[in-house]
Amino acid sequence: MKEAEEQATNTIVYTPQENQLDGGRGSSRFLQYKWWIQIVVFTMFVLSGQSAATMLGRLYFINGGNSKWMATLVQTVGFPLMLPFIFLFSPSKTPLEHHHQVTGKSSWTTLVILYTTLGIFLAGNCMLYSFGLNFLPVSTYSLICTSQLAFNALFSYFLNGQKFTPFIANSLVLLSFSSMLLVFQSDSKETGKISRSKYIIGFVCTIAASAGWGLMLSITQLALQKILKSTSYKVVFDITVYQSLIATVVILMGLFASGEWKDIKEEMWDFESGKASYIINLVGTAVSWQVFTSCFLMKR
Would 118 disulfide with which of 79, 156, 229, 243, CB 3.0-4.6 Å? Predict the structure, then answer.
């Protein structure tokens, strides 16, 4: 009898509620691990896509590419690669942070104005990046581009209500000083081949492009909250695809209006690495930029 009482005392009885709690903890832990794995994977694709696109873009100019419009076009023309994601991710099943129910659909006029404005802004921003990549070494260009984080924090503070923290303030100071010092340092081997005036133009254009990109991100976030009233994957991909479409049309208009399209065939044949390398370079650059853009959105 005594042994039976001790056995009953030492026996742990799980109620249905406790089983549900344990299952919930396990499920929550699994989702947390899954989320971190996704963040790591998307971050790797973002970094690799941007790095590959930057190096290929610089290689285009080094090997004889001269068209600023072509270098700008490849930054947006790959947007059709994002179309499958629009159908793959459903806003009711896959939220970015949490899906907001749309209380009222925006009018077509509002959407057209929004997408057109962002598209034109994106086209101008890509052109500035092309000037910077043409006149600056890759290392200098990449370091200046990090100033985008500072501009993003600044515009987010004024437009999106993002609060400044000591870590953000410290990053802003370091990024600002490191970028500003580059304008006075032009003793590298590759920089020596670039005139002082072109170096300054490249520096200013890259800074302006970084500021423009930070501003566009804040405006896009504001539009998602105030106009589209949704932050689902599908809505974010919609706005990205449409603004890329508008930007591509604007850039194509610039390419034909400038007359640079007439020199594309000659540029292809005169490319130092050959015709095939020219095509691979442009296609690879377009794909790399879209890998960066798609994974950047998904990482959010």
Answer: 243
